[in-house]
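User: Sequence recovery, please. Input:
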């Protein structure tokens, strides 16, 4: 029987059929007689009109595989990040003793409905982890993660919201030969192969943790009994020149996920942007609902902090990965870092495993065991073989 195999491939050929053939050949070069049972395919918008052809080709060549894919603004493979131009990236894997279940989802109704419907949801084991690709125009990814947290606690989801396209209907998503221009497609993985989520939000805390003492949805009126603007002024006065510059470029607010903790550090917060402030009233608006009684702390983000945050997470991996899928924000890449291929290179150099992925307009990944939709984040699905002894 064939042993576990995994590989990644990339092609920048202009012709879609040639590009797919080259990427698949590169990904399966060491497979021997092993036939993939998992295929993740990421396509830049330049190949949108060929998505049906790509989906059909993968389905015909690997009929027993769970195949998922989508179009987006940029793709990733190995140490390379292709942010512009035609490219196809694939992750191919033969994962023995592992159940891989492809599916498509469509949202029915309104996010305000008391009992919203996600049509197409498969029957999954509680310990299955989901990789999900979501259309940014038609699928409420933020609502989905809340729904999962409430109805399927412990069911973790990683993935991304497609970037690129200009209007609804521009996105192409596919799974196992079926093509869509709305909704979401995904694959659930359970069994011998375990999916480990790593979410790098790329932020550093400043100031001290505080309790929200007055708020209304996303408006914060008081932090520890003080106006938020006064708190920010105090942090500003104590900050050095660099931190003041970072505060001016975009202040963030981190909300503690696990309120049972007594000490907080990186990875304990879900980060949301400070969207605006009213100096006259001393209040701030945040890009999420902020609950009274929650613990928060201001954060800043910059290339050095993002680099350091991801490196620390990679240095502290408690398992040996065999492969990875990366969902990184389209606000990272060359929009954040001075050099190209930052996240892909950092992951590849730290782990040496096959890597594929995509640039996103929102990233799905758990923090402290709860699912969230993020921005400016690198969300990584690392695959571990539980039958393999750690080095």
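Assistant: Recovered sequence (391 residues):
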């Amino acid at each position: 029987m064939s042993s576990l195999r995994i590989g990644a491939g990339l092609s920048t050929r202009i012709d879609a059929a040639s590009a797919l053939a080259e990427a698949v050949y590169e990904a399966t070069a060491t497979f021997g007689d092993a036939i993939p049972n998992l295929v993740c395919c990421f396509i830049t918008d330049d190949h949108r009109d060929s998505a049906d052809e790509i989906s059909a080709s993968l389905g015909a060549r690997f009929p027993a595989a769970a195949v998922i894919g989508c179009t987006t603004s940029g793709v990733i493979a190995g140490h390379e990040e292709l942010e512009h131009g035609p490219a196809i990236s694939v992750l191919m894997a033969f994962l023995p003793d592992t159940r891989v279940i492809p599916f498509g989802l469509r949202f029915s109704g309104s996010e305000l409905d008391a009992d919203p419907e996600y049509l197409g949801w498969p029957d999954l084991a509680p310990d299955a982890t989901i990789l999900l690709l979501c259309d940014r125009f038609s699928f409420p990814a933020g609502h989905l993660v809340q729904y999962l947290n409430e109805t399927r606690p412990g069911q973790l989801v990683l993935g991304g919201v497609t970037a690129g396209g200009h209007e609804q209907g521009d996105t192409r998503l596919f799974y196992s030969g079926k093509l869509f221009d709305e909704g979401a497609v995904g694959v659930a993985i359970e069994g011998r192969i375990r999916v480990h989520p790593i979410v790098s939000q790329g932020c550093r805390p400043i100031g001290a943790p505080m309790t929200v003492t007055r708020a209304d949805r996303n408006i914060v009126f008081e932090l520890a009994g003080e106006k938020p603007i006064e708190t920010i002024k105090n942090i500003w006065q104590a900050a050095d020149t660099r931190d003041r510059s970072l505060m001016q470029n975009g202040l963030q607010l981190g909300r503690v996920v696990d309120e049972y903790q007594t000490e907080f550090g990186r990875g304990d917060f879900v980060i949301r942007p400070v969207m605006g402030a009213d100096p006259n009233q001393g209040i701030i608006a945040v890009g999420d609902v902020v609950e009274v009684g929650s613990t928060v702390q201001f954060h800043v983000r910059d290339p050095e902090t993002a680099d350091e945050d991801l490196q620390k997470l990679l240095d502290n991996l408690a398992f040996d990965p065999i492969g990875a899928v990366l969902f990184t924000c389209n606000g990272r890449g060359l929009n954040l870092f001075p050099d190209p291929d930052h996240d892909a290179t950092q992951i590849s150099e730290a782990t040496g495993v096959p890597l594929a992925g995509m640039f996103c307009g929102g990233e799905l990944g758990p923090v402290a065991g709860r699912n969230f939709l993020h921005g400016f984040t690198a969300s990584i699905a690392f695959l571990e073989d539980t039958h393999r002894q750690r080095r």
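The mean pLDDT is 93.
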